[in-house]
Amino acid sequence: MRKVLVPRHSRVFPTKLELDISESIPKKYGPELFETYQDWFYFAHIDPVQRWIHALGMVIGYMIYIYCGYLAINLMVIPFIIWLLVGIFFYYGSGVISHCVYDRAAGKTTPDHFGDTFGTVHRFNLETLFGVYDRSLRKFIKKYPFVIEAFDLIEIEIQNLPQHLLTRNKEQKNARNL
User: Fold this and answer.
1) Are 3 and 156 in contact (CB under 8 A)?
2) d(Cα 135, Cα 148) in Å, to the nearest integer?
3) Bridge partners (DSSP) listed for residue 7
4) Can you tell me the distance from the alpha carbon of 173 to that of 166, in angstroms, rounded to the nearest whole number?
5) pLDDT tops 90 at residue 111
6) Are 124 and 136 in contact (CB under 8 A)?
């Protein structure tokens, strides 16, 4: 069976401890440790829950943008403006919200790097959607071996990924009560 690498602490519904861990990683491993800002940006998006929220927001946003094209062609100005704002919310807002929820905004890019990260975010979103992200992550780890320790990556069988992201082991349940 196919195996994938995931952070040990990654959960759909994280505990305070898991949030603390997620917040500390991009702060401890800043952009200065990477060859490019895009590499750090990729690093800051290793958590699969965040990546899926980004990817789904991108898909929904693009679908709305296509609809906005129809509205623009038919000169429907007010609906165009409304739907454009909704599209922007999904396209950008879903990523921002995921960072606020899952790493307390520690891993989001700064406005001066929006252009630099545009291609990177699309690449990992598409890799996530098409199921090839793990292959890309393994190549990234060859370049930056400390990623394994930084995220406490574990290898699990792909069919066990939903269970890993939705449940807690005994140690995590006890951590929640601290």
Assistant:
1) yes
2) 14
3) 153
4) 12
5) no
6) yes
